Amino acid sequence: MLKKFKRLNNFFHPEVNKIDMNFSPFAMTVNGKVLQVMQATDNDIPALLVLEKAVYSGHTPWSSFSFESELKKRKNSLYLVVYQASTLVAFIGARFHPREAHITNIAVAPDYQGQHIGRRLLELMIDRARKNESECVSLEVKIDNDVAKRLYESIGFEATFIRKNYYQDTHTDAVNMILWLKPHQIKRRKLTF
User: Within 13 Å and on the Cβ side, how many CA atoms surround 91?
Assistant: First the structure.
């Protein structure tokens, strides 16, 4: 009976990813600055909170507990940090499931925005989703964050629907966006702003 239950549980709650969530660190050069890209650890949490405050006008949408909780999900999550020397300049997080990868968080320090660091991080996660044979990559973005929406659209994300009051701290709506990696059957109308 236990074997049968395990098979059923795996059917209803598949946790199998096709790829390993480990990440090999590397360096990249952006505008003459050497940046190190590596997997986030609990030691990065204080710097993640400082970066959030810089990006989100003094707010920290994610708490220390939120980051700790996400970083423990090693089977299906990957969080990357980008440092210039000892300064955190960007991060991204994603959860991977057999059918969908979801970008949970992305931020680039104000002094480093516009240098394609966010695009490069998104491309890394999209590549992982393809290797995992995910059908799509999804994310949410504040409805008034036009710069981010343009970046996501330039990569191929499409706005699908609005989540009312998604950001509880500011009571701001979010736009759900999806990048389809495989052909899909759903006919949608384009969401415009």
Answer: 26
CA angle 148–152–156, rounded 5-degree value: 165
pLDDT at 183: 79
Structural domain contains residue 5: no
User: Residue 19's Cα: distance from chain center in Å?
Assistant: 17
Q: With beta carbons less than 8 A apart as the criterion, state whether 61 and 48 touch.
A: no
Predicted TM-score (pTM) of this structure:
0.84
Radius of gyration of the chain (CA): 17
> Which regions in the chain score pLDDT beneath 50?
1-13
Please, what is the Cα angle at 104 between 155 and 52, to 5 degrees? 100
Burial, 88: exposed, middle or buried (Cβ in 10 Å; 0-12, 13-18, 19+)?
buried
> Could you tell me where the DSSP H helices lie in 61-174?
64-71, 117-131, 146-155
What is the distance between the alpha carbons of residues 124 and 38, in angstroms, rounded to a whole number?
A: 12
Question: Quick count: other Cβ atoms within 10 Å of Cβ 179?
Answer: 20
Handedness of CA 165, 170, 176, 181 (dihedral sign): negative
- Answer yes or no: is 7 within a domain: no
Taking the C-alpha atoms of residue 139 and residue 124, their distance in angstroms, rounded to an integer, is 15
Q: What is the CATH number of the domain that holds 173?
A: 3.40.630.30
Residues assigned a catalytic role: 140, 152
